[in-house]
Amino acid sequence: MIVQPHRIPFEGVQRTGEEPAEILLLEDDEEIQPFGPVVYNLHLQVALHDLIVNGSILVKLKRRCVKCTEFFPAEVSEPAFSRAIHLTEEEESVDLTPDIREAIILALCAHPVCDPGCKGLCTQCGANLNKQSCDCQQPEDIRWAALGNLKIEQQEE
């Protein structure tokens, strides 16, 4: 999104619109699939030598669940998008695209889950336990097995 600060009136201007999801540069990411444009609603104002940008941005994505590995729809938004960009006299225009991309990427959940009740995958056969059950025996937790062999003598007082 290219802005020309010298064309912004003193009181500022409201910009609402969409940018293609390609600006997020997520094409090579196998865990995230944008399926809608980046929607923005921004107020732009020039104050002395700074471009002040406030507003909100939103994009619809498909994310891969960390438990069951299925894709699910999700909205990622930054309702309090705010930037102050220092302007030089030579600058005819300012590209807000990197700032929008950064805000969306920082708003992404690090461990997305399709549903709070997601059962995930069977650790033995890999079946999606949300869609089917399996007859696999869960391995015994051997982390504490050695404690079962300890012989503790109690002292009488």
Entry summary:
This protein is mostly beta strands and 157 residues long. 7% of the residues lie in helices and 35% in strands. The model has no long low-confidence stretch (mean pLDDT 86).
Structure description:
A hairpin with a 2-residue loop joins strand 4 and strand 5 (50-64). The chain has a domain at 2-107. By secondary structure, it is mostly beta strands. The protein has one helix spanning 97-107; strands at residues 2-3, 13-19, 32-34, 38-47, 50-64, 71-86, 94-95. The strands form two sheets. Strands 2, 3, 4, 5 and 6 form a five-stranded antiparallel sheet that branches. The longest helix is centred in the middle third of the chain and has 11 residues, at 97-107. The termini are far apart. 7% of the residues lie in helices and 35% in strands. The model has no long low-confidence stretch (mean pLDDT 86). It is built from one helix and seven strands; from the N terminus they run E-E-E-E-E-E-E-H.
